[in-house]
Design a protein that fits this description.
Helix content: over 70%
Structural class: mainly alpha
Number of helices: 5
Order of helices and strands: HHHHH
Radius of gyration: 17 Å
Mean pLDDT: 86
Length: 136
């Protein structure tokens, strides 16, 4: 028995799950006033967990679609982005020891925002819809 009857339903469910994860991250972690009291390493770890959760949600829902380019693009962007922010995080943990570089921190947050945001997932779906429509 198939879990989803069509690719469209599978795609929409992936979008809903990513939107829920994104909303939870910003409501309970990024914009919460008590988050500043958490240790910096714990905040980094929580951000990484949410980013990996979005990656796996997208991988699960894009992996079975007929348009395989979407899955390949998803993997390429997320794996390279995760490598970049993990490298920045390790550099911060090992060498800076509490003295953060503001521009490096902003750069890492912007990459994390791209990876966790549902906009890339939605844009890929819209582009696929545009490319697969028959020309009249």
């Amino acid at each position: 028995m198939k879990l989803y009857k069509s690719d469209k339903i599978r795609f929409i469910m992936g979008l809903v799950i990513i939107f829920i994860l994104y909303s939870c991250y910003y409501i309970f972690i990024a914009e919460h006033r008590d988050t500043a009291m958490l240790p910096r390493k714990l905040r980094h770890f929580i951000s990484l967990l949410f980013t990996v959760a979005v990656y796996f949600a997208g991988t699960f829902h894009l992996g079975k679609l007929k348009a395989t380019w979407m899955s390949k693009f998803w993997h390429m962007v997320h794996i390279s982005g995760l490598c970049i922010i993990t490298s920045i995080g390790l550099f911060d943990w090992l060498f800076l020891e509490g003295n953060t570089i503001p521009r490096l921190s902003i750069f890492a947050r912007s990459i994390q925002e791209i990876l966790i945001s549902p906009l890339m997932y939605l844009a890929m779906g819209l582009l696929n819809n545009l490319l697969t429509k028959p020309a009249n």
